[in-house]
Specification:
The protein is α/β, with parallel strands linked by helices and about 450 residues long. It is about 45% helix and about 15% strand. The protein is built from 21 helices and 14 strands. The strands form 3 sheets. A 6-stranded mixed beta sheet has the order 4-5-13-10-11-12, sandwiched between helices. The chain has a 5-stranded parallel beta sheet with strand order 9-6-7-8-14, with helices on both faces. A 3-stranded antiparallel beta sheet has the order 2-1-3. Strand 4 and strand 5 form a beta hairpin. The longest helix has 20 residues. The structure holds pyridoxal-5'-phosphate (PLP).
Length: about 450
């Protein structure tokens, strides 16, 4: 598989180059070109029992011929020792739980694979690389855990002081070793600006070997296709016809990965893009108009995105055509009040606790089923199954879960352990000079 940006389709780069550069030189996002045809591989995935086998075979096919098949298989197995769980809730709804990784959120899949791939591709080199990331809270923990202990890699995470939750702060400050947390006395925007300045600074660029691990890196997107391929080929849980897949979305990386899996050969009836009131994409899908706007705060805060960057990639898949995109993806908006109601209702009906992001997806799936039940003939809608992606463990959002249901979710041991460890962070101001001095002193 090769990659290019939408505005320079002729400047084709390898997986390795796309991984280490992050952004194309023109500032655009890399997207796969000459999409691999997995239509013969996909049916054979049904016979594979574990997620690791599905991941190994799929990654070998996707990265061929750049990476030898054996190396690709072993990379996938090493990177992703945890598995998604496809849970049937009722006749029509299944949850695809993506929170069984080290930090209990789906971002573990992308971050762990990216880190393992970088480590594998750096093997045999003597010069270390430095990964710089700014986080508003959610990504930092996944990136910290993914890169912890990797050979030849240091990771520096900038986060805004006092503006991330306790658990989020602990997830990115307690690992130590090659994971360095910088507590910036400023906002998330300051953190992002500092990282951007570092990438543009001549001295840092010659003395260090900087790379990024943010969510737009194609190395985080590709592994997210794997759980769609896994879920879509589970014959025991699915009744035969192709499922509808509902994705709680913010920056739209997760949905884009699903659309890639479909384009490469996975059978999918259609997608639902579920958002909170930050619904620029659902509005586009209904009206054809794309109007980014400042984000509003909601209970599902990892989806509070006003100008989703992966929209560019989605548009490319559908050749810029609104009709084509809208015929495959249905947009649905869910308010905070509805999110709380849904958490309460799911618990009452099924004894299940879901986090607020998953609840947005669940509500959208219910609305979709209610509408399509009226629009289509009874036999077809009786058959429809919607897979809702469950993006975080309920214990990561315990306050909201207990507000909705009156129940405090049990905390997985790996989260509880993180909370017991001491925070190790270096305080820095918002001037670039401070960051630059720190980087040169530590890694120059
Ligand atoms: C990041 C995140 C999302 C949104 O995923 P995108 O790929 O940005 O659309 C949804 N739920 C949770 C819990 C997240 O952390």
């Amino acid at each position: 598989m090769k990659f290019a940006s939408a505005s320079h389709p002729d400047e084709v780069v390898s997986f390795r180059d796309a991984l280490f550069t992050g952004l194309a030189p023109d500032g655009g996002l890399y997207h796969p070109i000459g999409a691999p045809d997995l239509s013969t591989l996909v049916p054979s995935l049904e016979r594979l029992h574990s997620f690791q086998e599905v991941a190994a075979e799929s990654i070998a096919a996707l990265l061929s011929p750049e990476m030898p098949a054996d190396q690709a298989r072993s990379l996938a197995r090493r990177a992703l020792p945890f598995s998604p769980v496809l849970r049937r809730v009722d006749e029509h709804i299944l949850l695809l739980e993506l929170f069984h990784g080290p930090t209990c959120a789906f971002k573990d899949f992308g971050a762990q694979f990216l880190a393992a791939a970088m480590e594998a591709l750096l093997q045999g080199e003597t010069r270390r690389i430095q990964i710089l990331v700014a986080t508003s809270g959610d990504t930092g923990g996944a990136v910290a855990h993914a890169f912890h202990g990797r050979a030849n890699i240091d990771v520096v995470i900038l986060y805004p002081s006092g503006r991330v939750s306790d658990l989020q702060e602990k997830q990115l400050t307690t690992l130590g070793g090659n994971v360095h947390a910088l507590e910036v006395q400023g906002s998330f925007d300051d953190c992002q600006r500092l990282v951007k300045e570092a990438f543009q600074d001549g001295t840092l660029r010659t003395r260090l070997r900087l790379s990024s691990a943010n969510s737009i890196n194609i190395g985080r997107l590709i592994p997210q296709c794997l759980y769609y391929l896994f879920a879509g080929t589970r014959r025991e849980e699915l009744r035969g016809s192709a499922p509808t897949i509902c994705v709680p979305s913010g920056n739209f990386g997760n949905l884009t990965a699903g659309v890639y899996a479909w384009r490469w050969g996975l059978r999918v009836r259609g997608f639902i893009a579920a958002t909170n009131v930050n619904d620029v994409v659902p509005v586009y899908l209904r009206s054809g108009r794309f109007d980014p706007r400042p984000s509003a705060r909601t209970l599902s805060n990892a989806m509070d995105v006003g100008n989703p960057s992966n929209f560019e990639r989605l548009k490319e898949v559908f050749q810029g055509s609104w009709e084509k995109m809208a015929s495959r993806i249905e947009g649905r908006t869910v308010t905070d009040a509805r999110t709380l109601d849904t958490m309460r209702a799911v618990h009452a009906a099924h004894g299940l606790l879901v986090d607020p992001h998953t609840a947005v997806g669940y509500a959208a799936a219910l609305d979709h089923l209610a509408e399509s039940g009226q629009a289509r003939d009874a036999a077809e809608s009786a058959e429809e199954q919607v897979i809702v992606l469950s993006t975080a463990h309920p214990a990561k959002f315990a306050d909201v879960v207990s507000e909705a249901t009156g129940i405090v979710p049990d905390m997985p041991e790996r989260l509880a352990q993180c909370l017991r460890l001491p925070k190790q962070a270096r305080q820095v101001g918002t001037t670039f000079r401070e960051l630059s001095e720190y980087l040169l002193e530590s890694f120059g």
